[in-house]
């Protein structure tokens, strides 16, 4: 069996940061992100977080299945997600999508640009080939 | 000024892992990756690394400018890179490309699939717009 990966690349616009800035510390946000990921049975090896000026923060989770990253830019009401998971031991495509859906609720964006890249290797005459399936970008609201 | 980001997504095929597996510990590889990144004046906040079975490893660097990830799969001679950097304080597009070029030398791939995503926000009538410029995928050899 050759491994495949699902990579969701998403940009969130017109996000609402009030809830996070006023009511939660970054540590609580990190715990929430971790719980979203582990609920889908992914294995978190380590989660990093860092605060920047203007209440911006980054969270990067190294998973056994690859990684999740969240970079925020509150002054522009912008958040970027990368959710990148391997389907080696089981098909994680649904779990990856569910992580995405739960994460966007944290920021209540009015617009989303999302792209799903399926990376896949298969053997053909001794060579590896790459199939990159792109689904159309869409926008909410 | 509105921030923009450069995101290099690359998949390396038919890589050579002999050098890393036989001659270097993962800690030495991590140091080398860190030096490639800092040489381009990026700020590393933290670097995570993890070893898997079959000499596979992952390295994830959280940068002040976003992140760099390396996921390896020696049994399939495959490596994936994500190099994602912000151009807020200065134009980092050249530095981002130079990191990519130095990283690929570590794995001597015979084939590369690379894509550069430029993410950009600009104001227009009070709304943010997203320009996603895609350059064509290319392959070496």
Beta strands of chain A, count = 7
Q: Strand arrangement, largest sheet of chain A?
A: 2-3-4-5-1-6-7
The proportion of strand residues of chain A reads: over 45%
Describe the main β-sheet of chain A briefly.
7 strands, antiparallel
The chain pair with the largest interface is: A-B, 38 and 38 residues
Helix percentage range of chain A = 10-25%
Mean pLDDT of chain A equals 82
Stretches with pLDDT under 50, minimum 5 residues of chain A: 122-141
Question: Which class of secondary structure composition applies to the elements of chain A?
Answer: alpha+beta
Rg for CA atoms of chain A: 16 Å
Your description of this structure?
Chain A is an alpha+beta fold. Chain A has one domain: S-adenosylmethionine decarboxylase (4-Layer Sandwich), CATH 3.60.90.10. Chain A has helices spanning about 20-25, 25-40, 95-105, and strands at about 5-15, 45-50, 55-65, 65-75, 80-85, 110-125, 125-135. In chain A, strands 2-3-4-5-1-6-7 form a seven-stranded antiparallel β-sheet, with helices on one face. The interface of A and B includes residues 86, 111, 130 and 137 of A.
List the keywords:
seven-stranded antiparallel sheet, 3 helices, homodimer, disordered C terminus, 141 residues
Gist?
2 copies of one chain form a homodimer. Chain A has 141 residues and is α+β, with helices and mostly antiparallel strands.
List the helices and strands and how they pair.
The structure is a homodimer of 141-residue chains.
Chain A: E1 4-13, H1 18-23, H2 26-39, E2 44-51, E3 57-63, E4 66-73, E5 78-86, H3 93-107, E6 111-124, E7 127-134
Antiparallel strand pairs in A: 1-5, 1-6, 2-3, 3-4, 4-5, 6-7
